[in-house]
Amino acid sequence: MYHLPPMSYGYGELSKYISKDIMELHHSKHHQTYVDKLNKALDDAPALKERPLETLLADIDSLPTTVQTAIRNHGGGHYNHSLFWQWMSPDGGGQPTGDVAAQITEKYGNFQAFVDEFTSKSLGVFGSGWVWLQPNMDIITTANQDTSMMQGLPAPLLGLDVWEHAYYLDYKNKRDDYIAAWWNVVNWDFVAERHKAS
Asked: What is the DSSP letter of 139?
């Protein structure tokens, strides 16, 4: 049985950049729905309940066809959002330090060039999806609630939700304004933790 994870900060604590209304709707409604529908799907495939969610997502194509789409959509939604809340912080923003900063600079030349490339990929996602920074510092995109593991890749270091529900109340159709604001709340400490673990 999966549960909606609590956030480590209040819904209003990012409100300079992402409103309390969006955070509350996104977490308590959208993410809760992914959790509820994932649990319902797994009721139809009880043998899968013993497996960690990451392994289900990484092995998505071999799952029973009766539950594969539900686990892709709702399992992916639960996994992605559980990380997304941690990738943001009221104390976020600025630039990474340490190994993450060094590897970004090695690959992109400087931090701003990385931000520009990540932003460009984010704006290039057609419809709904995610943008990911991978452990090798590649920037990739996935559609809908797909994860990088579904492509046989490692778990991401950083991810940005570019579904309209993540920004529409604040930014309407201006995804570029949302992305620019989001950089001010990125939790680079959590990115560094994931990089060390990878």
From this structure: E
